[in-house]
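Thread: quick sanity check before group meeting

JM: Hey all, I'm pulling together slides for Thursday and realized we never actually wrote out the predicted structure for the chain we discussed last week. Dropping the sequence here so it's in one place. If anyone has concerns about the input, flag it before I start.
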Amino acid sequence: MFIEVVKSKIHQVRVTEANLHYVGSITIDEDLMDASNIIENEKVQIVNINNGERLETYVIKGERGSGEICLNGPAARKVAIGDIIIIIAYATLDFEEAKSFKPRVIFPDSETNSLK
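JM (edit): ok, ran it. Output follows.
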């Protein structure tokens, strides 16, 4: 049996931009991607703490060290600049393997989106 578990989590970052006129996705500072073990084009869930919205999209790399968190395309309608969001990536693992799997969870400074 296989189950879906949390693989990576960026806990509480601030939305810096919302770009409606883009194909779609979330742009994430590459430093945050590396620290959380999230890769480009990976499917992620976005949870907006400010308004309760939840959505799924895919990741594109933002400029390293920029603190950029930008919701693109239709997802831009689900956030406001300054909202605090959680970004979660999941993995499908064998049930026994999942019991000992440890996700990569990071807690950036939500004012600057930089690693502490």
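AS: nice. The mean pLDDT is 97. The beta strands are 2-14, 17-19, 25-29, 43-48, 54-62, 69-72, 84-94, 104-106.
JM: adding both to the slides.
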